[in-house]
Amino acid sequence: MIVRIMGEGQWKLADSHLVELNKLDDELLDEMESGDDEGFHRTLSALLDEVRRIGEPLPDDALEPSELILPAPDATLEEVRAMLRDDGLIPG
After folding, report:
1. DSSP code of residue 2
2. What DSSP line would sit under 30-63, residue for residue?
């Protein structure tokens, strides 16, 4: 699967990593629903760091379709809310 972090680039991840990422996505949803801005930014950072850690970065000139698009590290709660699906940023 190809994951794009807005403003940064793309990473290739094995589908098996979705379980790990979904745990962080669930935390992010809880913090958004409660209005916990500090927790939201902490968990968003952890989610993006995990993608960077487990993924293989694609070259900047690669034009692969992204199956997941994640917000930039400095995204606001409102910007991320606009990106959400029913099950969060990450399906499943």
Report:
1. E
2. HHHHHT-HHHHHHHHHHHHHHHHHHSEEPPTT--
DSSP assignment letter at 5? E
Q: How far apart are CA 58 and CA 12, in angstroms?
A: 7
Laid out side by side, the sheet with 56-57 consists of 56-57, 9-12, 2-5, 68-70
In this prediction the pTM is 0.90
| Residue 53 tokens, joined | 């850690």
- Residue 13: which residues within 8 A CB-CB, separation 6 or more? 1, 2, 3, 51, 54, 55, 56
- 9-36 pLDDT tens trace: 999 999 899 888 999 999 999 999 898 9
